[in-house]
Design brief:
This protein has ten helices and 17 strands. It is α+β, with helices and mostly antiparallel strands and 389 residues long. A five-stranded antiparallel beta sheet has the order 8-7-9-15-10. A four-stranded antiparallel beta sheet has the order 1-2-6-3, with helices on one face. The longest helix is centred in the C-terminal third of the chain and has 24 residues. The structure holds ligand EPS.
Length: 389
């Protein structure tokens, strides 16, 4: 499977074309809209989210509620476009460059503005920020919603939550099932299982907002019901954990990724890291622990995939940071009007989406591409094989 996204943050719409989704997967606009709504929520979002009510239009690849196997096109219109039709107009303009409103000549430290402008030769850095904006994650979540539908047909469940915001850490989540984790975090304005930490996270966000600042955090994605041996050790670009890592890092503002105990593995001896292997008739081979987060040798072990990503604070700040105007070369203190002070809860939904995409893609590639029933049969056979091996 593959997908492309297109669209500017204040342009008319965001679009994705998804190719290679097997035929026979039940899919409705409501399935996708539920995920889009989850991404829009979260304490710390700015005023833009009051303007947008993201709704998908499925314009190809689905008939009477089932995927056809043909390319699926998803469109999400930007409500804000009506305020930007002149500034973001597609047709040539009579206006001089200097008269175009909302021209950006002052790069924000930490954003794509300056490097993108130098790279593409844009004197107006709006040409960079419109596409580098995290608004694009809307359609990545839409594509992820399709991937989640594929996985759910195969008995694979994806969940996510927030572990840390602005230095406030949640207690390790003692959930009974992934469904329970999802139920609880869905009610939390910061998607945190630990409600006490959740309150402190909200206070930290409010404090940052008051200071004109922004804060980042850590999100975790968990996937259950994964067959053994998805991905491969035989070549670097077939290792599924590396693809998932790349997908997580590709989310706007993400700076790090780890699986299982991750960076803590540097501190403890191997005897406390590696997961002991056990076997019983019903479950086949499993592990006593899951320190490696569901991967050994770039392949799934059958234990839950556990992957975390760290998001830096959003670089669009009310609080001025020093930068240089590219027209005058004068130093100035950047001051920006509208932004989110924290988008970590939203980013946890984006992280679920990109992980779901990579896994669905690998499974479809490995177990049969054309129709979902064939993949179901092949996975059942593979599970049976692994149990009796
Ligand atoms: C963003 C800036 C803000 C955010 C936006 C990402 O938008 P605006 O510039 O219109 O105020 O709200 O996020 C979204 C629009 C979204 O859907 O997540 C940025 O500069 O990255």
């Amino acid at each position: 499977m593959r997908y492309l996204t297109a669209g500017e943050s204040h342009g008319p719409q965001l679009t994705t074309i998804i190719e290679g989704v097997p035929a026979g997967v039940p899919l409705t606009a409501e399935d996708i809209n539920n995920e889009l709504a989850r991404r829009q929520k979260g304490h710390g979002r700015g005023r833009r989210m009051q303007i947008e009510k993201d709704q998908v239009k499925i314009v190809s690849g689905v008939r009477h509620g089932y995927t056809l196997g043909s390319p699926i096109t998803l469109v999400v219109e930007n409500n804000d476009w009506k305020h930007w039709t002149n500034i973001m107009g597609i047709e040539p303009t009579e206006l001089d460059e200097a008269d175009i409103k909302r021209k950006v000549s002052r790069p924000r430290p930490g954003h794509a503005d300056l490097n993108g402008a130098i790279k593409y030769g844009h004197r107006d850095m709006r040409n960079v920020l419109e596409r580098s904006s995290a608004r694009e994650t809307t359609v990545r979540v839409a594509a992820g919603a399709v991937a989640k539908k594929v996985l759910s047909e195969l008995g694979i469940q994806v969940g996510g939550h927030v572990l840390e915001i602005g230095g406030v850490k949640a207690q390790p989540a003692q959930y009974e099932s992934l469904s329970q984790l999802q139920e609880v975090t869905e009610e939390s304005p910061v998607r945190c299982f630990d409600s006490t930490a959740g309150v402190k996270m909200m206070e930290a966000i409010d404090q940052a907002k008051q200071n004109g600042d922004s804060i980042g955090g850590i999100v975790e994605v968990i996937v259950e019901g994964v067959p053994v041996g998805v991905g491969s050790y035989v070549h670097y670009d077939r290792k599924l954990d590396s693809k998932i890592a790349a997908a997580v890092i590709s989310i706007n503002a993400f700076k790090g990724v780890e699986f299982g105990i991750g960076f803590k593995a540097a501190e403890v001896p191997g005897s406390q890291v590696h997961d002991e292997i056990i076997w019983d008739e019903q479950a086949g081979y499993t592990r006593r622990t899951n320190n490696l987060g569901g991967f050994e040798g770039g392949m799934t072990t059958g234990m839950p995939i556990v992957v975390r990503g760290v998001m830096k604070p959003i670089p669009t700040l009310y609080k001025p940071l020093k930068s240089v105007d590219i027209e005058t070369k004068e130093p100035f203190e950047a001051s920006i009007e509208r932004s989110d002070s924290c988008a970590v809860p939203a980013a946890s939904v984006v992280a679920e989406s990109v992980v779901a995409w990579e896994l669905a893609n690998a499974i479809v590639e490995q177990f049969g591409q054309d129709r979902i029933q064939l993949i179901q049969e092949n996975i059942e056979k593979a599970n049976e094989w692994a149990r009796n091996f």
